[in-house]
Write a structure and sequence with these properties.
The complex is a heterodimer of chains A (162) and B (194). By secondary structure, chain A is of the alpha+beta class. Chain A has helices at residues 2-9, 14-30, 37-49, 62-66, and strands at 53-54, 56-60, 75-80, 85-92, 97-105, 111-117, 120-125, 131-138, 141-148, 155-156, 160-161. Chain B has one domain (10-184). The chains are: A alpha+beta (162), B mainly alpha (194).
Chain lengths: 162, 194
C-alpha cells in the first residue's frame, strides 16, 4: 500500500477538486437539505434570541427505553435548567397522541409551557403548584418551551421523541 | 482554489459572519445558517441516521452554538466546532431515541441515496460513484463532508471528523488516495476525465 501512502502525502490537485465537486453534486441531488430546515433553525434561534436556556435531559424513564414502539407504556422525562426543573410524564392515548402531565419546580414566577411538534404547537399555563397538562399532545419529535413571566430566561428543551 | 485566492473558503466566510454576529449584528446569524447548514446536514447524514435524527442534531448544534458563542475564541474555528457538535448530537439523538433493531432497518432506508435520483449523467461520474461506494464507511463519510467545504478547509474539516490528515497544508490524505488508486486501476476511468 506504499502507493496509497505516497499519494496521500501529495498536495491536492485539480483532479481531486473535480472528484470532490462531483461527490458534492451527487449528494446534493440524492440527499438534499430538507426544505424548511434552515427556516426551522432560524426560528429556533429566534426563540433563543430571547436568551432561552437549553435544558439538559437528565433522565429517561427506564420503561420507555425498552418500550418505545408500544403505545401502552407511560414515559417519564426529566429536564433541568438554571431557572427551573421539569418532570413530564406521557400517557399514551393512541398511535398519534399522548396526554402530557408536567411538574415544574424551582421557580417562583408564573410560567407558560409550549410543546412544539413541527408546525403544531400546544400550550398551557403552569398552575401555582407547578402542574400542567397538555391533552391531547401530538406524538413525534417535540421540544418543550417554558416561557416565564417577567425578567427570567425562557427554557427550551432538546428534541425528544414522545 | 488556493488559500490566498480571491474566493474565501467556507470556514473564512463563516468566521466573518460569526464575528459580525458577535459584534451585535443579529442578521449575520441567518447568513451563517445558510452558509453552513449544507455541510452540517451531510455531516449528520454521513453517520447513516434517518432524516429526522439528522434534522434534530443539526438544529440542536445551532442552539448550542448560540449558548456557547462567547467560548469560541477563534471565529475561524466556528465551522469545525459546529461539525464536531453535529457529530456528537447525531450520536446522542440516535441513542436517545432508543431505536430497536427493526426500527433501524426501517428508518435507515431513507439514509441511503436512491440511485434513481442520482445525477450520474456522464460515464466518469458513474465510475467515480461505484468506487466511492467501495470505500470504507469512515472514508465515505469524510469525503462526503469535505466535498461540501472548500479545499483550504480540508485539514480543519478532517480534524473535526476525528481523521486528521497529519501534516501541514492541504495534502490528499488516506481516503482520497484510496479512491485515486482505485480509479487509476480501473480502465473505465480513462485517466481521470470527468
Amino acid at each position: 500500500m506504499s502507493t496509497d501512502r505516497d499519494l496521500a502525502a501529495q498536495p491536492l490537485d485539480d483532479v481531486d477538486t473535480t472528484i470532490l465537486d462531483t461527490i458534492a453534486e451527487t449528494f446534493r441531488a440524492a440527499d438534499p437539505v430538507p426544505a424548511g430546515l434552515t427556516e426551522d433553525i432560524k426560528f429556533a434561534l429566534t426563540v433563543q434570541a430571547l436568551h432561552a436556556e437549553v435544558a439538559e435531559l437528565q433522565r429517561v424513564g427506564a420503561e420507555s427505553a425498552l418500550a418505545r414502539s408500544e403505545y401502552t407504556h407511560t414515559q417519564t422525562l426529566t429536564f433541568s435548567a438554571e431557572a427551573l426543573s421539569v418532570m413530564v410524564t406521557m400517557s399514551p392515548i393512541d398511535a398519534d397522541e399522548v396526554r402530557v402531565d408536567g411538574w415544574v419546580t424551582g421557580h417562583d414566577f408564573p410560567v407558560r409551557v409550549e410543546l412544539r411538534a413541527g408546525s403544531r404547537t400546544v400550550s398551557a399555563e403552569v398552575d401555582e403548584d407547578g402542574r400542567f397538562t397538555l391533552d391531547p399532545a401530538p406524538r413525534g419529535l417535540v421540544r418543550f418551551v417554558f416561557l416565564p413571566e417577567g425578567d427570567v430566561r425562557p427554557v427550551i428543551t432538546p428534541t425528544v421523541e414522545i | 482554489m488556493s488559500a490566498d485566492g480571491t474566493v474565501q473558503s467556507l470556514a473564512t466566510r463563516a468566521a466573518a459572519a460569526f464575528s459580525a454576529y458577535r459584534d451585535g449584528e443579529v442578521r449575520a446569524m441567518d447568513e451563517l445558517v445558510d452558509l453552513l447548514t449544507p455541510v452540517l446536514w451531510h455531516t449528520a447524514r454521513a453517520q447513516n441516521v434517518p432524516e429526522a435524527v439528522a434534522q434534530d442534531a443539526v438544529q440542536t448544534a445551532w442552539l448550542r452554538l448560540v449558548e456557547n458563542a462567547e467560548r469560541i475564541k477563534d471565529p475561524q474555528a466556528v465551522m469545525g466546532w459546529l461539525i464536531v457538535t453535529v457529530r456528537r448530537e447525531t450520536w446522542r439523538v440516535n441513542k436517545a431515541h432508543g431505536r430497536e433493531d427493526h426500527d433501524i432497518d426501517e428508518n435507515l432506508t431513507d439514509a441511503i441515496p436512491d440511485p434513481s435520483t442520482l445525477v450520474l449523467r456522464r460515464e466518469g461520474h458513474r465510475v467515480l460513484w461505484a468506487h466511492f461506494q467501495q470505500l470504507p464507511q469512515n472514508c465515505q463519510a469524510l469525503l462526503r463532508v469535505i466535498a461540501f467545504a472548500d479545499r483550504p478547509d480540508y485539514a480543519a474539516v478532517s480534524e473535526s471528523l476525528g481523521m486528521p490528515v497529519g501534516s501541514i497544508g492541504p495534502t490528499r490524505g488516506r481516503c482520497l488516495a484510496k479512491l485515486r488508486t482505485a480509479l487509476a486501476n480501473d480502465p473505465a476511468w480513462e485517466g481521470g476525465a470527468l
